[in-house]
Amino acid sequence: MMAAALRGELLSRPLVIPTQTQGDAQKRRLEDRVERLFAEIAKLRDVKKEVVGRYQQAKKENKKLQRELNALKEDHAKEVHKLADQVFREFPDTEEGRTI
Description:
Layout: H1 2-12, H2 20-90, H3 95-99
């Protein structure tokens, strides 16, 4: 009974067939959307290239700074050893010489 009523309701509705212009308009909207999506993809690729480039540059800069820091640490250690040796030579048997 329910199915018959539903069938009757569906048959009583007018059949809507999209016209050619409706189909063309829908096709144009879809094509426009696809074009916008491709444009967005191109922008994102450009942004990715820029970000990767910045990352690579930062990585190079970091390596350079790390080498400079290591050189400074080595120079500092050499200077500390040099000063400690100098103190030990000047004060071999004193309290100052033993605590350093």
